[in-house]
Amino acid sequence: MKKSIFIGGKIRELDFAQPSMFEGEMRKDLTSFLKQDQEVPFMVTANSKSKRVTFLWPIHLKPDYKHEWDQDPNKIREEFVYIITGHRFGYLPQYPGYYYHIKLGEFYSFYRKLCKMNGASKFKDVQVKKTPDKGIELVLTF
After folding, report:
1. 141 - beta bridge partners?
2. Which sequence spans correspond to the domains of the chain?
3. Structure pTM?
4. Distance between CA atoms of 20 and 44, rounded to whole angstroms?
5. DSSP secondary structure string, 20-51?
6. Backbone phi, then psi, for 73, in 5-degree steps?
7. Distance between the two ends of the chain, CA-based, in angstroms?
8. What distance in Å separates the CA atoms of residue 40 and residue 42, rounded to the nearest whole number?
Protein backbone atom coordinates (compact mmCIF):
# COMPACT_ATOMS: atom_id res chain seq x y z
CA MET A 1 0.00 0.00 0.00
CA LYS A 2 1.37 3.42 -0.99
CA LYS A 3 0.29 6.79 0.35
CA SER A 4 1.21 10.38 -0.47
CA ILE A 5 2.12 12.12 2.76
CA PHE A 6 2.79 15.81 3.35
CA ILE A 7 5.69 16.01 5.77
CA GLY A 8 8.82 18.10 6.05
CA GLY A 9 7.46 20.72 3.66
CA LYS A 10 6.59 18.53 0.66
CA ILE A 11 4.61 15.55 -0.58
CA ARG A 12 6.42 12.23 -0.25
CA GLU A 13 5.43 8.73 -1.34
CA LEU A 14 5.44 6.14 1.44
CA ASP A 15 5.38 2.45 0.56
CA PHE A 16 4.18 0.64 3.69
CA ALA A 17 6.29 -2.37 2.63
CA GLN A 18 9.54 -0.32 2.56
CA PRO A 19 9.44 2.48 5.14
CA SER A 20 13.25 2.52 5.41
CA MET A 21 13.53 4.16 1.96
CA PHE A 22 11.21 6.94 3.09
CA GLU A 23 13.11 7.23 6.37
CA GLY A 24 16.47 7.72 4.65
CA GLU A 25 15.10 10.36 2.27
CA MET A 26 13.38 12.20 5.12
CA ARG A 27 16.47 12.14 7.34
CA LYS A 28 18.61 13.60 4.53
CA ASP A 29 16.06 16.34 3.78
CA LEU A 30 15.60 17.25 7.45
CA THR A 31 19.34 17.62 7.90
CA SER A 32 19.59 20.12 5.02
CA PHE A 33 16.21 21.71 5.88
CA LEU A 34 17.31 22.46 9.45
CA LYS A 35 20.87 23.37 8.31
CA GLN A 36 22.51 20.85 10.63
CA ASP A 37 26.10 19.63 10.36
CA GLN A 38 25.11 16.18 11.58
CA GLU A 39 22.29 13.94 10.46
CA VAL A 40 18.94 14.66 12.13
CA PRO A 41 17.53 11.57 13.88
CA PHE A 42 14.25 10.40 12.39
CA MET A 43 12.32 7.11 12.36
CA VAL A 44 9.30 5.79 10.46
CA THR A 45 7.14 2.87 11.56
CA ALA A 46 4.47 1.75 9.10
CA ASN A 47 1.85 -0.91 9.78
CA SER A 48 -0.25 -1.88 6.75
CA LYS A 49 -2.72 -3.92 8.86
CA SER A 50 -3.70 -1.03 11.10
CA LYS A 51 -3.12 1.44 8.24
CA ARG A 52 -1.08 3.57 10.59
CA VAL A 53 2.24 5.32 10.13
CA THR A 54 4.29 6.87 12.94
CA PHE A 55 7.02 9.45 12.44
CA LEU A 56 9.40 9.97 15.35
CA TRP A 57 11.79 12.86 15.86
CA PRO A 58 13.91 11.86 18.88
CA ILE A 59 14.28 15.43 20.04
CA HIS A 60 15.49 15.22 23.59
CA LEU A 61 12.97 16.83 25.88
CA LYS A 62 15.12 17.53 28.88
CA PRO A 63 13.48 16.84 32.27
CA ASP A 64 14.98 20.09 33.61
CA TYR A 65 13.28 22.02 30.79
CA LYS A 66 10.13 23.28 32.54
CA HIS A 67 8.21 25.22 29.90
CA GLU A 68 4.45 24.91 30.22
CA TRP A 69 4.10 23.11 26.88
CA ASP A 70 6.02 20.15 28.30
CA GLN A 71 3.39 19.71 30.97
CA ASP A 72 0.37 20.50 28.83
CA PRO A 73 -0.52 17.56 26.56
CA ASN A 74 -2.74 19.88 24.49
CA LYS A 75 0.04 22.18 23.24
CA ILE A 76 2.97 21.92 20.87
CA ARG A 77 5.85 24.33 20.30
CA GLU A 78 5.87 26.19 16.99
CA GLU A 79 9.37 24.92 16.18
CA PHE A 80 8.01 21.35 16.12
CA VAL A 81 5.18 22.44 13.83
CA TYR A 82 7.89 23.81 11.51
CA ILE A 83 9.82 20.52 11.62
CA ILE A 84 6.67 18.49 10.81
CA THR A 85 5.20 20.73 8.11
CA GLY A 86 8.04 22.91 6.85
CA HIS A 87 5.80 25.95 7.40
CA ARG A 88 5.60 28.60 10.06
CA PHE A 89 2.25 28.43 11.83
CA GLY A 90 1.37 32.09 11.86
CA TYR A 91 2.75 35.58 11.86
CA LEU A 92 4.62 35.14 15.09
CA PRO A 93 7.99 36.90 15.23
CA GLN A 94 10.95 34.73 16.16
CA TYR A 95 12.75 35.78 19.34
CA PRO A 96 15.85 33.84 20.40
CA GLY A 97 15.12 31.65 23.42
CA TYR A 98 11.36 32.22 23.33
CA TYR A 99 8.98 29.60 22.01
CA TYR A 100 5.36 29.98 21.01
CA HIS A 101 2.89 27.34 22.06
CA ILE A 102 0.11 26.20 19.76
CA LYS A 103 -2.98 24.25 20.77
CA LEU A 104 -2.96 20.79 19.24
CA GLY A 105 -6.49 21.25 17.89
CA GLU A 106 -5.30 24.29 15.93
CA PHE A 107 -2.25 22.38 14.70
CA TYR A 108 -4.41 19.45 13.51
CA SER A 109 -6.65 21.83 11.57
CA PHE A 110 -3.60 23.60 10.08
CA TYR A 111 -1.98 20.28 9.13
CA ARG A 112 -5.16 18.92 7.50
CA LYS A 113 -5.45 22.10 5.39
CA LEU A 114 -1.81 21.86 4.29
CA CYS A 115 -2.27 18.18 3.35
CA LYS A 116 -5.40 18.95 1.33
CA MET A 117 -3.81 21.95 -0.44
CA ASN A 118 -0.75 19.91 -1.40
CA GLY A 119 -2.65 16.82 -2.62
CA ALA A 120 -1.69 14.33 0.09
CA SER A 121 -3.65 11.12 0.61
CA LYS A 122 -6.64 11.54 2.92
CA PHE A 123 -6.20 10.20 6.43
CA LYS A 124 -8.76 9.42 9.12
CA ASP A 125 -6.88 10.70 12.12
CA VAL A 126 -3.76 12.63 13.10
CA GLN A 127 -2.17 12.72 16.55
CA VAL A 128 0.92 14.27 18.08
CA LYS A 129 2.47 12.60 21.10
CA LYS A 130 5.21 14.17 23.21
CA THR A 131 7.26 11.73 25.26
CA PRO A 132 10.31 12.92 27.21
CA ASP A 133 12.26 9.67 26.67
CA LYS A 134 11.28 9.31 22.97
CA GLY A 135 10.66 12.76 21.49
CA ILE A 136 7.88 13.99 19.21
CA GLU A 137 5.68 11.48 17.38
CA LEU A 138 3.27 12.23 14.54
CA VAL A 139 0.79 9.38 14.01
CA LEU A 140 -1.38 9.22 10.86
CA THR A 141 -4.17 6.67 10.50
CA PHE A 142 -5.54 5.96 7.03
Report:
1. 52, 125
2. 2-141
3. 0.78
4. 7
5. HHHHHHHHHHHHHHTT-SSPPP-EEEEETTTT
6. -70, -5
7. 11
8. 6
